[in-house]
Amino acid sequence: MPLGLITRSSLVKVLERKYLMMLTKHMTVPAVYHLLGAIVLVVAGSAKSAEQTIVPAQVLRIKQVYKPVVPDRGPWTIEVENTSQSVITAYGVSYICHYPDGSTKNSGVTFDLGPLLAGQAGVLAEIEYLRSAKPEANFTFNRGADPSFGPGATRRDTFSPQKNLIGLAPDSVTAAPVSVIMDDGRAAGDPDILAGVFYGRREDQTRRILLIEDLRLIQDSGDTAAKLEERLSALATTRTSPVPVPKLLPGQTSVLLDNPESRRAWRREQLVLLRGQAASSDSAALKAAILRYEAEAAVFARQSAYGGQ
């Protein structure tokens, strides 16, 4: 499901491509991530018994829905408040569009904050390493807006309501919270929506695990530029078909598809970006990129584990 996110600072704009995790060289990448996922599952499972069942309307409050500054153009903005005692990492709302001709339409949107949280961690890991590896470069970092959504916090996200059958934009929109995912993996709401979020995070983790393997092959080769071209060629020629994914949550009815081709295309895109930045010929920049993606994968590993209700 497409996810809409508001960007309010230069950091958040960068976060679509930047992410985090620190790994030891004494373990394989998949082993570390599987270990992290297992730890999260144990912790989330033991904490669940001590927590009350989550009710989205009791942990998330819709404060206001704002129309675009220019009517009929641009996205709408929803302002929400975390009224729980935990960090919220994703939430969904249902909304009703009210049109000038009196018609209405029901719809919904889900906001996953996981990529922003992973991205911030990734940028921090990358900058921290580059500051020590290249002190003469005087790297600076502006944290910008904090993407975390902790207890008592308020945030704004954007979405784009559809026009009605005769092309009218809504006059007003009323919204209500229908799903929520907490930082410990507990979640409530439509199982199909929640499964889509958890699967998306797991997919983001898997993509980075595979990309890290690509980057380590390049890093360990005698000719990094040649190895990069070799990896690009390999990723461009292999073809596979999507396959169904086992159901992730109780009550899930939708069928999610694992798409290796999409994953491969994403990896190739990242390697092309690194080639354009000449990172393959700069050992420090290549190491920094690995640390960035390792850090992001660690965040996704923690957030992709379902902890029940």
Q: For the record, give the distance between the C-alpha atoms at the N and C termini, rounded to a whole number.
A: 22 Å
The largest beta-sheet arranges its strands as 4-3-6-7
Give the percentage of residues in beta strands. 15-25%
Unreliable residue runs: 1-50
Cα shape:
globular
Mean pLDDT: 83
Radius of gyration: 21 Å
Structural class estimated from helices and strands: alpha+beta
Q: Encode the helix/strand succession as letters.
A: HHHEEEEHEEEHHEEHH
Question: Topology, please?
Answer:
Layout: H1 10-14, H2 29-48, H3 56-59, E1 60-66, E2 76-82, E3 88-98, E4 104-112, H4 114-133, E5 154-159, E6 172-182, E7 187-188, H5 191-220, H6 224-237, E8 243-244, E9 257-258, H7 260-276, H8 283-303
Antiparallel strand pairs: 1-2, 2-5, 3-4, 3-6, 6-7, 8-9
Helix pairs in contact: 2-8, 4-8, 5-6, 5-7, 5-8, 6-7
Overview of the molecule:
A hairpin with a 5-residue loop joins strand 3 and strand 4. It is built from eight helices and nine strands. The chain is α+β, with helices and mostly antiparallel strands and 309 residues long. Helix 5 runs antiparallel to helix 6, helix 5 packs across helix 7 and helix 5 runs antiparallel to helix 8. The two termini are 22 Å apart. The protein has one domain.
